[in-house]
Hints:
Elements: H1 2-9, H2 15-26, H3 30-34, H4 40-47, H5 55-65, H6 69-73, H7 79-97, H8 100-111, H9 117-133, H10 137-148, H11 157-173, H12 177-193, H13 199-215, H14 219-235, H15 239-255, H16 259-275, H17 279-295, H18 299-315, H19 319-335, H20 339-356, H21 359-375, H22 379-396, H23 399-416, H24 419-435
Amino acid sequence: xxxxxxxxxxxxxxxxxxxxxxxxxxxxxxxxxxxxxxxxxxxxxxxxxxxxxxxxxxxxxxxxxxxxxxxxxxxxxxxxxxxxxxxxxxxxxxxxxxxxxxxxxxxxxxxxxxxxxxxxxxxxxxxxxxxxxxxxxxxxxxxxxxxxxxxxxxxxxxxxxxxxxxxxxxxxxxxxxxxxxxxxxxxxxxxxxxxxxxxxxxxxxxxxxxxxxxxxxxxxxxxxxxxxxxxxxxxxxxxxxxxxxxxxxxxxxxxxxxxxxxxxxxxxxxxxxxxxxxxxxxxxxxxxxxxxxxxxxxxxxxxxxxxxxxxxxxxxxxxxxxxxxxxxxxxxxxxxxxxxxxxxxxxxxxxxxxxxxxxxxxxxxxxxxxxxxxxxxxxxxxxxxxxxxxxxxxxxxxxxxxxxxxxxxxxxxxxxxxxxxxxxxxxxxxxxxxxx
Length: 436
């Protein structure tokens, strides 16, 4: 009612008149409002009442004019259905931009309209993606389960597969690799059985499944999954997904000790990420190159890659990736014989990663702190850091990385001459491998 009065005060009673009033309020020309998606002629006809816009066109117009949908629709027939469709399109666009605040806003408005079950499930999917991005994993699982209870796979296979993908990806992000693999395999089976043809979903799924396999040391399955993702993405001209496929192939080569092949694939991924302006994965590729170079003993090259990653992260204001790069630099500083600098960098990186809620990278940072403390002769502090790292990996269920950290800690204990403790750590490392 308040919106209708606002329109009345402006002297705008029809959709076209409301568009014209909002456009003039912002001082836009018809061509400026049209932009690249529409035409000046279409805007002119719309304002004259000669055409009716589609929901997608109205979404573009409303976004440009910074007005809610109700401003334009008012009490017109089918307003509720149009509102829901509008909010769905707006939420989808916000998901693509990773504008999670906008996603939450659009979902909240849509759910207030009490949409039918299938539409409600779609909005719960969008909200689950926003919660996953905020590392609110339990809430993500709740939303996915609620949405799955509203739809039937025989009629909504794509939506079910999308929900299963979010569930599997979230398990992976939280380090629960076995659960992630099971959920992603169920998603893959759904995609295949019901012939879901969305190439983007298929390629993203195979990248995520490949990553889960790789972290569980199932290298053959990992490579098969990554190559399938790469083939699908290439056919669909999805460069960003293709780049992620290269990332997965690189990581698998790295795990197999094929470091030159790993760096080659990481560089291919980096080139594609830069071409599509995917900064997040560009930074991922940069720091991955640095890690492999460090493992190869190419300290200077690793340092340069990590410094480049940090500079780029700081340039775009990404504290998370800057902290990941700083942990690499901490490891490099220790090799260069500067444990004090190593400790400062590792501790700073660990604080940032803790604040970001990235417990897996935080656990790695604690390992770097442990190594620096050990080099400084502070055994009790080193023990605390290493055990904190192992505890974090255990908490998130990341047995693969816990195994690697336990093996590193075992080498430290062996160098001290504490053979019993070293043997216990080796048993922990083997136990994690057996559990997988």
